[in-house]
Design brief:
The structure holds two protein chains of two kinds.
Chain A: E1 6-10, E2 20-27, E3 30-38, H1 44-47, H2 56-59, H3 68-83, H4 89-115, H5 130-137, H6 143-155, H7 157-162, E4 172-173, E5 176-177, H8 185-204, H9 209-213, H10 218-225, H11 234-244, E6 257-259, E7 262-264, E8 270-272, E9 275-277, E10 282-283, E11 290-293, E12 328-331, E13 337-338, H12 340-347, H13 350-359, H14 363-387, E14 404-412, E15 415-424, E16 427-434, H15 436-440, H16 452-457, H17 470-478, H18 483-487
Parallel strand pairs in A: 6-13
Antiparallel strand pairs in A: 1-2, 2-3, 4-5, 6-9, 7-8, 9-10, 11-12, 14-15, 15-16
Helix pairs in contact in A: 3-4, 4-6, 4-14, 6-8, 8-14
Chain B: E1 8-14, H1 20-25, H2 33-39, E2 42-46, H3 55-66, E3 74-78, E4 81-82, E5 93-94, E6 99-100, H4 101-111, E7 114-118, H5 120-124, E8 137-138, E9 142-143, E10 146-147, E11 164-166, H6 173-184, H7 200-203, H8 214-218, E12 285-286, E13 289-290, H9 299-311, H10 315-321
Parallel strand pairs in B: 1-2, 1-3, 3-7, 7-11
Antiparallel strand pairs in B: 4-8, 5-6, 9-10, 12-13
Chain lengths: ~500, ~325
C-alpha cells in the first residue's frame, strides 16, 4: 500500500504580524510542496480610490502597525515624486532618523519576541543550550523580554520627540517632516540613541556595535565568538543554537535578492544601495521590470501580469485555483527575496556575502543579517543626528499637481516596499502597493513558479507526530513576515 | 482575579486591523508590562504577537474557551470585524480553521466575562470601514455611529457591561492597561463609560486640553503649512477642540502627541473619523469660517472672540505661528 503525501494545514501562525496559514504536503519526513495563504483581505487600494492624494498619509500607515512609518515614507516619497520635489537636508535626515528608529525597533522585536521564543520550547529540552535559552527567551516569561521591552519603549521615545507618536504618525510629509528640532533638542535625541547603543552593546552583542558590524568573514565571526562577552551575548547564544540545529542549511529560497535602497544619502544614492543580486553580481534595479500576477489570488486577473501603475485590485472570492489574497509580484518574471539579508547582499556586506555564497539564503543568514543591520544603522543614526542644521527648515511646502504619477520606493525592516499612485483631476485614480512580504510570501504565478517562502519550505524536516512543524515555524519567522502589509 | 481566585485570562484576537494597537501597547512606559498586568490579577491566555503556542496548540486553547471548558475572563478584539463578502465573513477566515473570524468572535463573546474592543477598528469599524468599505467592516457593537455592529446593540458581556470601547487609532498603551486593570478589579461600571462605550477616564477630556499650541489658539494665530508652530485648527484640519481623548495630558512615546509632532488631530477616537467628508489636512469652511467649531461653544461668540483676539495678537505670536521655530522670544519685564 502506498500512501500519498500527508497534508497539513498550519495556522494560526502567531508571532508574525497578521494572519497566515500554510498548507504543506509532507512525504518521507520532508515538506515536498507548500502553499502560503495570506488569509485576511481589507482592501486599502479600493478604499483610497477617489480620495484627496494627501489622505494617503492618513490611510497607509494604518495598513500596518509594525511598518507604519515605512508605509508613510513610501507614500511621502510617491507624493514627492509626483510633485517633482525633494525635502530640504534636515527633512531628509529627520525622515531617515524616524524611519531607522522604526526599522531597528522592528528588528529587535522580531529577534526577541517573535523568533527566539521557538527555541525555548520544551521540544528542544534535550539540547545543551536549552536551559539558558529557555530562561532567556521563553515567550512572555523569559528574562530577555523584561529587558528588551523597556529598552525598546525608551528607544521609541525618539518618535515622541520627532514624529509625535508611534505607530501612525502624520509627521512624514512629501516636503519633509512637520517637527523641527528646537535648540538643545538634537542633544536630547543624542541621549536617546546613546542609551539604546549602551543597551545593545551590553545585552544583545556584548561588544561595541562597530566591532560587530565590521565582522567581515566567517573566520572573523569564529574569532569574534571567542571574545569575552560575545558567547554570553544574545547574538552569541543565537549562533550557538544555529550551529547545533544547522539553521544555515534550513530555508533556502531563490538566492536572488532585491533591495529598493535604504536611507537616502545627501549626495544621492542610499546608505544601503538599491539593486538586485544573484550572489555573483549586483545589477541596477529597474522599476519597469516589476509586475504583479494574480493567477492564484482571490482577485480579478488582468490579461497578464500587470505593472503596478496599471494594477487592479478587486476581490473574486469564488475563484478556482486561488488559495490566497496575496498577488505574486515578480521582477522580470522571476521570484526574488527581500529583507535585511537581501539589503546586505546588495549593499555588499562581506560576511553576509560569504554566508550566502557557501550555503545560500537560510534561516541563519536572515537572522544574522538583521542583527548586523542593527549594529550598522544605530551608528548611522548618530551621524544623521549630528548632521542636523539648527535653524534650517525641515519641511518645504508642496503643491501637488492635478495630474501626475508617483513612485515611492523604500525599505521597511522586512524588505522592499513600493507605492505607485496616479493622480487624476486632483484625486487618487489608482494606488497600488507591493509590500515586502508580498514578494516573499507570494503564491505561485501563471508559470507555476512558487513564491520565495513556498520554495524555502520545500525540504524542511517534519516529524511524524508534528502538526505545526518546528522547522517550518523557524523558516516562516526567519523572513520576519508582515501579513497585514502583504495583502493590505 | 477570577471568582476562583486565580489570575484572570485574557484572550486577544486580531482581525481586520493593522496590529498597531498591540505595537502601541508594547510601548507602555513601565519596566515590567507583564508584571503590571500580573499585579492586577491578569495574564495572557493567548496573544497572537506574544504567546508561544502556534497552530493546533493555539486552536485548542481558543476552542476550549469557545466551548466553555476553560473560563474566559477578558476577550480583547483588535481590528474590525469583516462581515463580507455577502455576509459570509470570508474576507477573514481564522487561520487553520476555515471558519470566519466573525463566527469565532460571536462564540467567544458569548462566553466572556468582559469584552474589550481594542482600538477604533474593533470599536466602530475604523479605517478598514473607510471609503466603499469593501469588506463590510464594522465594530463589535457599533457600525460607525450606529449601535449594533457584529454583536448587536443589546449585547452584554458576563459582567453586564456592553463592549468596552478603548477607541483610538492606535490606542495609547495606558488606556488599555488601565481599562484591563479596572475591569479585573471590578472598578468599571456602566457609568464609567461614555455614550459610545469609551472609558470616561480618558474620553471625558479633549485633545485640546494641554495642547502646547494654546497661545496660538487663543489669538487665532494659525499655521499655514506643515511644520509651522501656529494653531492647526483654522487651516490645517485640526479637530483637537472636538476630539475626546487626553493625548496632550497623557503623552505618547515619552514627550509626544500629534500636536507636539507638528500635525493635526484627526479625531481618531471617534466613530467614522476615517471619512470626515473633507481632505484630512484642510479645514472645511463656510464663508471663511471653519465649520467644525468647538462643540459646546456658541458659534456667534466664537466668531466674535476670534475677530477680537486676532486684532490683539502680539507680533511675537503672529510671526512665530508661521515659522518652524520661535523667531521672536517673549519680552522680559522692564525691557523695551
Amino acid at each position: 500500500m502506498t500512501a500519498g503525501p500527508r497534508r497539513l494545514l498550519v495556522g494560526p501562525f502567531n508571532r508574525v504580524e497578521g494572519d497566515l496559514e500554510v498548507g504543506l504536503e509532507v512525504s518521507g519526513g520532508r515538506v515536498v510542496a507548500a502553499r502560503v495563504n495570506a488569509s485576511l483581505y481589507r482592501g486599502f487600494e479600493q478604499i483610497l480610490m477617489g480620495r484627496d492624494p494627501h489622505d494617503a498619509l492618513v490611510y497607509v500607515p494604518r495598513i500596518c502597525g509594525i511598518c507604519s512609518v515605512s508605509q508613510s515614507v513610501a507614500a511621502a516619497f510617491a507624493l514627492a515624486n509626483a510633485a517633482g520635489i525633494a525635502p530640504p537636508p534636515n527633512g531628509r535626515l529627520a525622515v531617515n532618523l524616524i524611519h531607522a528608529c522604526e526599522n531597528v525597533a522592528d528588528h529587535l522585536t522580531h529577534f526577541y519576541l517573535f523568533f527566539m521564543p521557538d527555541f525555548a520550547r520544551d521540544a528542544y529540552a534535550g539540547r545543551p543550550w536549552h536551559p539558558r535559552v529557555a530562561g532567556r527567551f521563553k515567550a512572555v516569561t523569559g528574562q530577555a523580554a523584561g529587558q528588551v521591552l523597556p529598552a525598546r519603549a525608551r528607544f521609541l521615545e525618539i518618535m515622541g520627540l520627532m514624529a509625535g507618536r508611534w505607530p501612525h504618525s502624520l509627521a512624514l510629509q512629501p516636503g519633509g517632516t512637520t517637527r523641527a528640532l528646537l535648540p538643545a533638542e538634537p542633544l536630547r535625541l543624542g541621549f536617546m540613541i546613546a542609551e539604546f547603543r549602551a543597551f545593545l552593546e551590553r545585552v544583545t552583542f556584548g561588544d561595541r556595535l562597530e566591532s560587530v558590524a565590521s565582522i567581515a568573514s566567517l573566520d572573523e565571526l569564529t574569532a569574534w565568538r571567542a571574545k569575552p562577552g560575545a558567547a554570553d551575548s544574545d547574538l552569541g547564544m543565537f549562533l550557538a543554537v544555529a550551529d547545533d540545529l544547522d539553521l544555515g542549511a534550513l530555508g533556502r529560497a531563490t538566492d536572488r535578492f532585491l533591495s529598493f535602497g535604504a536611507y537616502p544619502a545627501a549626495a544621492g544614492g542610499h546608505l544601503f544601495a538599491r539593486g538586485l543580486t544573484d550572489c555573483e553580481t549586483v545589477e541596477a534595479m529597474d522599476p519597469a521590470a516589476i509586475a504583479e500576477d494574480a493567477t492564484h489570488a482571490w482577485l480579478v486577473e488582468g490579461e497578464g501580469p500587470l505593472p503596478p501603475f496599471a494594477g487592479v485590485t478587486a476581490p473574486l472570492p469564488d475563484k478556482e485555483d486561488a488559495y490566497t489574497w496575496c498577488k505574486a509580484p515578480r521582477y522580470a518574471n522571476r521570484v526574488v527575496e527581500t529583507g535585511a539579508l537581501a539589503r546586505q547582499m546588495v549593499a555588499g556586506h562581506p560576511l553576509v556575502r560569504e554566508l550566502v555564497s557557501r550555503q545560500g539564503g537560510s534561516v541563519r543568514a536572515r537572522v544574522l543579517a538583521r542583527l548586523l543591520e542593527i549594529a550598522l544603522v544605530v551608528p548611522a543614526m548618530e551621524g544623521w543626528a549630528r548632521a542636523l542644521r539648527p535653524g534650517e527648515p525641515y519641511c518645504d511646502s508642496v503643491r501637488l499637481p492635478d495630474q501626475a504619477d508617483g513612485i515611492g520606493l523604500a525599505e521597511a525592516a522586512r524588505g522592499s516596499l513600493g507605492h505607485w499612485l496616479r493622480i487624476h483631476k486632483g484625486k487618487l485614480q489608482n494606488y497600488q502597493i507591493i509590500a515586502p512580504t508580498t514578494w516573499n510570501f507570494s503564491p505561485r504565478d501563471r508559470n507555476g513558479q512558487p513564491g520565495a517562502l513556498e520554495q524555502a519550505l520545500v525540504g524542511a524536516p517534519v516529524g511524524d507526530d508534528e502538526k505545526t512543524p518546528l522547522a517550518v515555524q523557524h523558516i516562516v519567522r526567519s523572513f520576519d513576515p508582515c501579513m497585514v502589509c502583504t495583502v493590505h | 482575579m477570577t471568582d476562583a481566585g486565580g489570575p484572570a485570562n485574557i484572550l486577544w484576537l486580531q482581525s481586520g486591523g493593522c496590529g498597531g494597537c498591540t505595537m502601541s501597547l508594547l510601548c507602555a512606559e513601565t519596566q515590567d508590562l507583564a508584571g503590571r498586568l500580573a499585579g492586577a490579577g491578569l495574564r495572557f491566555l493567548w496573544h497572537p504577537a506574544l504567546s508561544e503556542e502556534s497552530g493546533g496548540e493555539a486552536l485548542a486553547l481558543i476552542e476550549d474557551c469557545a466551548e466553555g471548558r476553560r473560563p474566559l475572563d477578558v476577550l480583547c478584539v483588535e481590528g474590525s470585524l469583516l462581515r463580507g463578502p455577502g455576509g459570509t465573513g470570508r474576507f477573514h477566515l481564522f487561520s487553520g480553521t476555515g471558519v470566519p473570524t466573525i463566527d469565532w468572535v460571536r462564540r467567544l463573546a458569548a462566553r466572556a466575562r468582559h469584552v474589550v474592543a481594542v482600538g477604533s477598528c474593533a470599536a466602530f469599524g475604523g479605517i478598514t470601514s473607510g471609503g466603499i468599505n469593501p469588506t463590510d467592516a464594522c465594530g463589535l457593537q457599533y457600525d460607525g455611529h450606529q449601535r449594533g455592529g457584529l454583536l448587536g446593540s443589546g449585547f452584554r458581556a458576563g459582567d453586564g457591561l456592553p463592549v468596552v470601547n478603548v477607541a483610538g487609532c492606535p490606542i495609547h498603551p495606558e488606556w488599555v492597561v488601565l481599562t484591563l486593570c479596572l475591569l479585573a478589579s471590578g472598578q468599571m461600571a456602566e457609568g464609567d463609560l461614555d455614550n459610545l462605550g469609551r472609558p470616561r477616564f480618558y474620553a471625558d477630556h479633549l485633545v485640546h486640553h494641554g495642547c502646547p499650541r494654546n497661545e496660538y489658539y487663543e489669538f487665532k494665530a494659525s499655521a499655514e503649512k506643515p511644520s509651522d508652530l501656529g494653531c492647526l485648527m483654522e487651516h490645517m484640519g485640526c479637530k483637537g477642540t472636538q476630539a475626546h481623548a487626553d493625548c496632550n495630558q497623557r503623552l505618547w512615546n515619552g514627550s509626544g502627541s500629534c500636536l507636539r509632532g507638528g500635525y493635526s488631530c484627526i479625531n481618531c477616537t471617534a466613530p467614522a473619523f476615517e471619512d470626515p467628508g473633507h481632505p484630512f489636512h484642510q479645514t472645511p469652511k463656510v464663508a471663511g469660517i471653519p465649520i467644525g467649531l468647538p462643540s459646546d461653544m456658541p458659534k456667534a461668540w466664537f466668531v466674535a472672540l476670534a475677530a477680537l483676539s486676532k486684532s490683539a495678537t502680539p507680533r511675537r505670536v503672529r510671526e512665530n505661528a508661521t515659522s518652524d521655530h520661535p523667531r521672536v522670544p517673549p519680552e522680559q519685564k522692564g525691557q523695551k
